[in-house]
Design a protein that fits this description.
This protein has 337 residues and is an alpha/beta fold. The chain has helices spanning 38-41, 49-71, 90-107, 116-122, 166-176, 183-191, 216-232, 238-264, 279-289, 307-319; strands at 7-12, 17-24, 28-36, 80-86, 111-115, 134-139, 144-151, 154-160, 268-272, 294-296. The strands form 2 sheets. Strands 3-2-1-4-5 form a 5-stranded mixed beta sheet, with helices on both faces. A 5-stranded mixed beta sheet has the order 8-7-6-9-10, with helices on both faces.
Length: 337
């Protein structure tokens, strides 16, 4: 406790960002340090789990110390330690979980494990006057979920991807187009210079009343288009391919999101996850919502994996009476409920 504020230390190591944050009273960010590993993984065109784990191990202590220093707090001021314990890369998760357990034991303060997807949802609460219920579209490199958040700790998953996550599809197509890694921001940027109506890539509909997603067919269609033109020696305008691909992804995401909001009669739609930073997706959601629905999304810096969102989610779980003990483990495929 410091200056009457409840202080949470958040730790996030689920993939390729080592992050630590200090959050006061669940919503006020005092520090949020994110150390990216992009330069180590981009040469491989994606995240290498073994490298990610080693880099987390090398960085976690320094990242936490920097978060404490920037927030002007010490370990003695910490009231709660919150850490991502799944889903994610198991080796990467174990670094954060092990560190968090050690800290909680040393300072004799409560520990709480947080679901990574729940953390992304809670990024919307940081420094915002925002409360449930609402529909949340969680889109990142590893996850694509449509979640109805009825109240704190009460979720209903209405739809999820059956194969590739949206962010994963962005990365793979960006690599095929020779754009590099990570693919989401690169496709978003180059698509602005292209014509999204040039190529009619498919928008998957699973079933008539199904809210699940599928992006593997779209990915295959783009790769087949590129290979077909390469074999025939036809020039391909990368900007148009990127724009047309992005349009197909965004159309699927937006259509299902508004259908989900209609089914549960939600007047609020929230966006979360790395792909939530995509300008085309944000614009489409706002245009479709008009004056009828409210659309919320976090600042771009809180869309990527970060520890502030984990601290926020952990705080609310703790206030609901949840806690973890030192047997807390990491789970690569942890479910939201």
């Amino acid at each position: 406790m410091k200056d009457g504020q409840f202080i949470t230390l958040g730790i996030e190591t689920s993939c390729d960002e080592t992050s630590a944050a200090i959050v006061a009273d669940g919503r006020k960010i005092l520090s949020n340090i994110i150390l990216s590993q992009t330069e180590w993984h981009e040469k491989f065109g994606g995240v290498v789990p073994e490298i990610a784990s080693r880099k987390h191990l090398e960085s976690i202590c320094a990242v936490v110390e920097k978060a404490l220093s920037k927030a002007k707090v010490s370990f003695e001021d910490i009231d709660l330690v919150a850490v991502t314990h799944g889903p994610g890369l198991i080796g990467a998760l174990l670094v954060g979980v092990s560190y968090a357990k050690a800290v909680a034991y040393a300072i004799k303060k409560p520990l709480i494990g947080v679901n990574h997807i729940e953390g992304h949802i809670y990024a919307n609460f940081l420094e915002n006057d925002f409360e449930p219920p609402f529909i949340c579209l969680v889109v990142s490199g590893g996850h694509t979920h449509l979640v109805y958040m009825e109240d704190h700790g009460k979720y209903k998953v209405l739809g999820r991807t059956l194969d590739d996550a949206a962010g994963e599809a962005f990365d793979k197509i960006a690599r095929a187009l020779g754009l590099g890694y990570p693919g989401g921001p690169l496709i978003d940027k180059i698509a602005r210079m292209g014509d999204e109506n040039t190529i009619a890539f498919p928008v998957a509909r699973i079933k008539e009343n199904d809210l699940d997603f599928s992006f593997s067919g779209l990915k295959s269609a783009v790769l087949n288009f590129l290979n077909h033109n390469k074999q025939k020696g036809n020039p391909v305008k990368v900007e148009d391919v990127a724009a047309s691909f992005q349009k197909a992804v965004v159309t699927a995401l937006v259509e299902n999101t508004f259908e989900a909001a209609k089914r549960v009669n939600s007047q609020v739609i929230a966006l979360a996850g790395g792909v939530a930073a995509n300008s085309r997706l944000r614009k489409e959601l706002q245009e479709r919502a008009g004056n009828n629905l409210e659309v919320r999304f976090p600042p771009v810096q809180l869309c990527t994996d970060n520890a502030a969102m984990i601290a926020c989610a952990g705080y609310y779980r703790y206030k609901q009476g949840f806690s973890s003990d030192l047997s807390l483990d990491a789970y690569a495929n942890l479910k939201l409920f």
